[in-house]
C-alpha cells in the first residue's frame, strides 16, 4: 500500500516480472508497469527486482525528470531495522574536525563513509597517506592506487554509513573527473615537453651559429 513500511524480506518476495519491487535509498518502488518504459531497457530492472538497487541507480546519471518519474512509483519506505544509515559529507568533515585522536580518519570512498581511525597505523602505505585525505571524499585518490581483493574485502569492516544521496558523486561523474584530470596531466606533460624541446632546439641553433662565427673568424685571421 502507498506509504507503507516494508522489510527487506518483504521486498525480496516481490522479485517476479509481474510483481517487481526494488529499493533505492531506503525507499520502496513498484516497477512492475515500468519495464518497457525504462530508457535503459527492461532487463536492467528485471535484474534488480526484489533487491536493493541503490548502487545501480546511483551509478548512472539521472535527470530531474527521471527522478520525478521514479517518485511516482514509490509505494513506501524500508523498515528502520533494515534501512541504511546515511551521513552528509559536511557531517563527515565535522566529525573529523572534532576528533581528538591524532590518528583520527573519517573519509568517503565510492559513496561509503569509513572510520579508519584504528587502521591508520596499519596502512601499508603509511598513515600520512590516509590522514591527508581525512574529512574529504577520497574516491579519486583511492582509485589511483591498485588495491588487492583482500584489501577491498578488509575495507568493508570499516564502513560506518552510506554517503547521503544528495552528496553522492555517481560512478560516471567520478570516472569523468578522473579522465579529465588524467587528460589535463597528459596535456601539461606534453606542453612541458614541447617547450623543453623548443628551448633545446634554440640553444643548439645558437651554439651552432656561435661555432660558425668562431670558425669564420679564424679563417679570416689566417687568410
From TrEMBL:
It is found in: Endoplasmic reticulum membrane; Microsome membrane. Keywords: Electron transport, Endoplasmic reticulum, Heme, Iron, Membrane, Metal-binding, Microsome, Transmembrane, Transmembrane helix, Transport. GO terms for molecular function: heme binding; metal ion binding. Gene3D superfamilies: Cytochrome b5-like heme/steroid binding domain (3.10.120.10). It holds the Pfam family Cyt-b5. One of its GO terms (cellular component) is membrane. The keyword Protease does not apply. It comes from the Eukaryota. The chain crosses the membrane at residues 198-222. SMART domains: Cyt-b5. Its main location: endoplasmic reticulum. The keyword Cytoplasm does not apply. InterPro entries: Cyt_B5-like_heme/steroid-bd (IPR001199), Cyt_B5-like_heme/steroid_sf (IPR036400), Cytochrome_b5 (IPR050668). Belongs to the cytochrome b5 family. This is Putative cytochrome b-domain protein. It comes from Trypanosoma cruzi.
